[in-house]
Design a protein that fits this description.
Strand content: 5-15%
CATH class of the largest domain: Alpha Beta
CATH superfamily of the largest domain: Alpha/Beta hydrolase fold, catalytic domain
Order of helices and strands: HEEEEHEHEHHHHHHEHEH
Strand order of the largest sheet: 1-2-4-3-5-6-7-8
Largest sheet: 8 strands, mixed
Number of helices: 11
Structural class: alpha/beta
Number of strands: 8
CATH topology of the largest domain: Rossmann fold
Distance between the termini: 32 Å
Number of domains: 2
CATH architecture of the largest domain: 3-Layer(aba) Sandwich
Length: 377
């Protein structure tokens, strides 16, 4: 996956169609997708990605789209007491099946014990996104999305599955942002949260970093405000190199931990860039904007004060920042922990940077599973 997994693949999180991005191609396929969406069964089969029809969805911004939908997958069954549900909200570049490193009889989330629901964010390419929404909300015209919008959409999925309360919300990266938002928006509906390599707010440096990536991509004249008719290859190259520079730690690069998959740093960068060439870039930017804007203190009642918003979280929090994460640095997590009244703070001791929380490195995945299993006992 483009940014978080040690093994770089084509960015499956985003629509693969690069030309054109704005919905003028293959209308019959879009129509078929809508028909299949509403024909889908109400309940998901174990491990099978399903679609939940939201209908007309109004975002926090006030904008609305018709026929909105959320991709999701479940494992296990909701018990009679309805107290065993766990939500896994997706991350930037992640899909509903990306959390399988946590799911299994020998992992933290055993389907024999928990009812596990994984949902995808708006912009994932599976849920409603710039790449799969028809005009007038296609491509760069897709509404601005807040993390709170993703939380509310996931909440509707859960209600359709009979879930009224969650044993835990567990999320990596932007999934961690959603976990914090659940605790802020719906404190009586969640028993605990786990935040892997993600914070309750995107602070100034993170906002600047994301803006620099977006600026690098959109400076290519072929971008055309998002209505590109050919890949903006120069912009994609700058964008891909940006993510390559930030996703791993400095020590990962110095110790050449990319070997044996790649022979040198140039190969790593080239692989990153290739992965982005077939991605839907409007999806990528929409999610980056959501990441950039996030702040649980924007939730009604907190008046923009992040310290008050964090202090208001009363549920237990397993806070697991990456020790060498450059996206969500330890200093941000250490600042936030001071205001959390029930936090267990366990940094992930890894040189894999931000990817440590995504399960791609077996050692990190084993560490995360052990900590989550102990926390949920």
């Amino acid at each position: 996956m483009w940014a978080y997994q040690p093994v770089v693949k084509v960015p499956a999180a985003f629509g693969r169609r690069c030309i054109p991005p704005s919905g003028v191609a293959m209308p019959s396929i879009r129509l078929l997708a809508i028909v299949l969406l509403f024909a889908a069964p109400a309940r998901a089969q174990d491990g099978t990605v399903q679609q939940f029809a939201l209908g007309r969805f109004t975002f926090e911004s006030g904008a609305s789209i018709d026929n909105a939908h959320v991709a999701y997958v479940t494992w296990g069954k909701l018990n009679a007491a309805k107290d065993n549900a766990v939500l896994l909200p997706s991350w930037y570049g992640g899909r509903a099946l990306s959390y399988q490193f946590l799911v299994g009889g020998d992992r933290a989330l055993d389907p024999a014990k928990y009812f596990i629901v994984a949902t995808e964010m708006f912009g994932s390419g599976g849920s409603s996104s710039p790449s799969n929404t028809p005009a007038p909300n296609d491509g760069p015209r897709f509404p601005r999305v807040a993390i709170r919008d993703d939380v509310e959409a996931s909440r509707q999925v859960l209600r359709s599955l009979g879930v009224q309360r969650l044993r835990a919300v567990i999320g990596f990266s932007m999934g961690a942002q959603q976990a914090f938002q659940w605790a802020a928006s719906h404190p009586t509906e969640v028993d605990a949260i786990v935040a892997l390599c993600g914070t309750a707010k995107t602070y100034g440096h993170g906002r600047v970093r994301l803006e620099s990536a977006i600026s690098a991509l959109t400076a290519d004249p072929r971008w055309k405000g998002g209505d590109y008719s050919e890949p903006p290859v120069d912009g994609i190259k700058a964008w891909g190199q940006h993510w390559a520079a930030w996703v791993y730690s400095q020590e990962w690069w110095r110790q050449e931990m990319y070997k044996p998959r790649w022979a040198n740093a140039d190969e790593v960068m080239a692989d990153r860039v290739r992965g982005w060439m077939t991605a839907n870039l409007n999806d990528a930017i929409q999610l980056a904007r959501t990441w950039q804007d996030h702040d649980i203190a924007k939730t009604a009642g907190f008046d923009g004060n992040i310290e008050h918003a964090l202090a208001a979280i009363r549920v237990p929090v397993l806070y697991m920042p990456g020790a060498t994460d450059l996206y969500f640095p330890m200093s941000d997590a250490e600042y936030e922990r001071k205001f959390l009244t029930r936090a267990t703070f366990v940094p992930i001791p890894s040189l894999w940077g931000h990817t440590a929380g995504g399960g791609g490195n077996p050692t990190d995945a084993a560490f995360i599973n052990k900590q989550i299993a102990a926390f949920l006992k």
